[in-house]
Amino acid sequence: MEIILKKNVDKLGYKDELVTVKPGYGRNFLIPQGYADLATASAKKAHAEIMKQKSHKESKITAEAEAIAAKLTEITVTISTKVGENGKIFGSVNTVQLAEALKAAGFDIDRKSLKIKDEPIKEVGTFEAEANLHKGVKPTFKFEVVGE
Length: 148
Prior knowledge:
By secondary structure, the chain is α+β, with helices and mostly antiparallel strands. The chain folds into two domains: 2-60, 3-Layer(aba) Sandwich (Ribosomal Protein L9, domain 1), CATH 3.40.5; 68-147, Ribosomal Protein L9, domain 2 (Roll), CATH 3.10.430. The chain has three helices and nine strands; from the N terminus they run E-E-H-E-H-E-E-H-E-E-E-E. It has helices spanning 23-30, 41-74, 95-104, and strands at residues 2-5, 18-20, 36-38, 76-81, 88-93, 114-116, 121-123, 125-131, 140-147. The strands form three sheets. Strands 4-9-8-6 form a four-stranded mixed β-sheet. It has a three-stranded antiparallel β-sheet with strand order 2-1-3, with helices on one face. A two-stranded antiparallel sheet has the order 5-7. The longest helix has 34 residues, at 41-74. It is elongated, with a radius of gyration of 19 Å.
């Protein structure tokens, strides 16, 4: 079954992509949740026209994402948290805290597009994370967890 994605779906595709999925997944999950539309002949024609118009905008967005990625790989973000006597932190560091630290550093990146490589982080140190800024633009950057 062919569908046109309305939103980015993890492990499936990006917005406005034409993908093939199993019929049950498309009919029972993607279409009712508003993630996709059925790819009929008329929908494919409309999609092709929309994609022609978006190609110019897409190149601008990709250039902006690459510029942000270049700046992001150069910095190290610091997250401060409460630490016990033996260097273990209370709880764990997650993408919400990482997104807040990035916002303080001047990068407005949604927490859903961040992925911490060594999850869960329960100790002080330097770690890596990945930001999914755009199709094919996934910079890896470092962040440091320090005790208060």
